[in-house]
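Cross-posted from the bioinformatics board.
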Amino acid sequence: MKETVDWISSLPDEILTHILSFVTTKEAVQTSILSKRWRNTWVSVPVLNAWEPSAEWLDRVALLMPQVISVLVATENFECPDSVFSCASLESLKLFLIHPTAFTFVSPESIALPYLKTLELDGLRLGDNFMQQLFSGCPALQSLNPNDLDLEESSPSIHTQKREVRKATSPCIATRRLESGDVEVVRTTTRVSASSPPRY
Amino acid sequence: MITLISSDKRKFHVLEEVANQSLTIRDVIEDRRGRRRADRIILVTNINSKIPEKVIVYWLRHFLMPEEIAHASMSHKKAEKLKKWEAKFFDTDIDTLNDLILAADSLDIPSLFDGACEKVSDILKNRSAEEVGEISKIENEFTHEEEEEEIPSENAWVWRNEFA
C-alpha cells in the first residue's frame, strides 16, 4: 500500500510558482481552491496571461509586480485600469482590446513603466497625449508594436517626439525614424468589416 | 569518470562530460580538479537510486544531442523524435516527477527541471479541484464557506465559463 502524502507540499514555493508559469493565468488562479498552500501561490507567478479578465481584477494584479502582462479582451467599454501603466516591474505589456465594432479608449492619467522593453497594442483608441506619455514614461522601450489603433487625429505629439524606438513593426502602422530623429507614425489602417459601420 | 552515490548507497559511474549537464556537479568537479581520484566521488544523498537512474538516462539522451546543436541544426524528424522520447520519459507517476523536480533543482539541470515542471502543469491543467486533489493527494482544508464563496469571489472572472 502506497503512503498517501500530499507530494506537492514537499516542493518549495519557487518550484510551485515555476510549475504555474506553464499554465494560463486563469488556470493558475484556479489552483487557489486546492488548499491553503496553493491559495496565494499563483500571486508570485511573474507572467500574467489573461483572457477576458475583469478590469477590477487587472487593477489589483498590476500591484503584484508582474514582469509580463498580456491581456486579451473583446468586450465593449472595457476600462483598462491606470495601474497597468504605472507597474514599475513590467518588462512586457500586450494589450489586445479587440472589440469587433468599437475601439477601446485608453487614456491613462500618466505612464511610468521604467523597465518596459516591449509593448504591443491592438484595437485601442489612444488618448490625446498617449504617445508623448509613452515615450517619456518608458525609457527602456525597445520594441513597439502598435496594431490597428485609432490615434486622435489632432494629436501633434506623434510628430514632435524626439526619441528613437529601435524596433517597430506593424502591418497597420509603420513607425520609421526620420533623419532628424523624429518618430513619425503613419496610419495605414485598413481593417474593414462588411457588416459594421466605419468606426472613424 | 565520476561516481555518484545515492542515498541507498548505490554507485553510478558516469562520464564527466555527461554528468557536466548538472551545473552543480560541474562546479564540484571544477573545484576538485587536480586532486585525488577519491574526490571524483559525489554523494547525492537527497535522492534514492531510482532517480539517478532516470537522470542518467536523461543525460545520455541529451548528451548524444546537445541542446545548442539540437536547436540550430536538428532536422525536423530528429526534433520530433526527441520530443516523443521526452514525452515518454516524463510519462511517469507523480511521485517520480516530484523526485525528478527536486533532483533537477538540487543538481541544477535546467532542461530536466523545466520538463518535469511542465509535465506537472499538464497534469493540473483542465481538471477540477477535486480531480487534482485526488491525483496529488492535496488535502483540502477549506471550510465550505471559503470554498463556495470567499475564494471564488476573490478572482471572480477565472471561475466564469465564458463559453457557457
